[in-house]
Amino acid sequence: MNHIADTVTLHNGVKMPLLGLGVYKVEEGATVVQSVKWAIAHGYRSIDTAAIYKNERGVGQGVREAMQENGLTREQLFITSKVWNSDLGYESALAAYETSLEKLGLDYLDLYLIHWPVKGKYNDAWRALEKLYQDGRVKAIGVSNFHVHHLEDVMSIATIKPMVDQVELHPRLTQPELQRFTKEHGIVLEAWSPLMQGELLGDPLLSDIAAKHGKSVAQIILRWDLQHGVVTIPKSTNEKRIMENASLYDFELSAEDMARIDGLNENRRIGPDPDNFNF
After folding, report:
1. Which of 4, 58, 3 is nearest to 26 (CA)?
2. Which residues are annotated as a binding site?
3. Is 53 a catalytic residue?
4. Which residues does the chain have with pLDDT short of 50?
5. Active-site residues (predicted)?
6. CATH number of the domain bearing residue 243
7. What per-residue confidence (pLDDT) applies to 156?
8. DSSP letter for each residue of 107-120
9. Is residue 1 one of the residues assigned to a domain?
């Protein structure tokens, strides 16, 4: 893990960048277009959006402009979107995929995820994702916000097991059981809100480790993710922070550093619990 282009190989052989830009709550239009362009110009190759973020058009525009300005091909980038809860049927998930592609202005996605495990609906949606994958419309498929029991349930009906599970994960919510399960089954874990929406940036222990390495707290947390083999997608609309969030490859956390950060776990969420959400 010594370069921004470093990848993890999904169980179907597709390579997914370990670092990406998340665009949750980034305003559609110029803001998201510019954020995507900055990220790609500074070496990011993965962009993560979702239908519910309502910024897929801007993400697509940013991707196309960045490709042209940086001399990149589509194959060099890794674009993710997600099917929203209201579309978690078989036909509706297929239609939602086409809508996302149209908004993004792309021919395919690298990764398509079920956004939340809506009880009684996500298995039908999974069958739709399998069809998209088998038809060559998407390079990889996965889920988001799935606990172990949700993964076990979908795997019981799946012909293709999920390649990725994107979940809330940060030093206050380390999800050890889920980390063990996904490793055991060859499912890549991906962290959303890795910085706990900024709440961790003043933590004394993290500040101490950051001072030791001459790095920011954000860089320490993101490096901790990478050394755990967890894909991480910090969000920023600030060019300086986008650059800082990618400056993770000139230092390494010791085993002691890693253990101290692991010890911050409180099983505390800032987002909804996937067993109890209302949207």
Report:
1. 58
2. 115
3. yes
4. none
5. 53
6. 3.20.20.100
7. 98
8. S-BSEEEE-S--TT
9. no
Residue-wise DSSP of 209-238 = HHHHHT--HHHHHHHHHHHTT-EE--B-S-
Domain count for the chain: 1
Q: What is the pLDDT of residues 13-52, one digit of tens each?
A: 999 999 999 999 999 999 999 999 999 999 999 999 999 9
- Domain membership flag for residue 41: yes
Distance between CA atoms of residues 36 and 62, nearest Å:
5
Burial of 275 (0-12, 13-18, 19+ CB in 10 A): exposed
Which of 44, 53, 112, 122 is the catalytic position?
A: 53
Do the domain assignments include residue 279? no
Structure tokens at 43: 């070496």
* Known binding positions for substrate: 115
Structural domain boundaries, residue 223: 7-262
Taking CA atoms, 55 is separated from 7, 22, 104, 109, 195, in Å, by 25, 11, 9, 15, 22
163: closest CA among 8, 3, 5?
Answer: 8
Give the C-alpha separation, 64 to 58, whole Å.
10
In a domain, 274, yes or no: no
Question: Which tokens sit at 58?
Answer: 């801007």
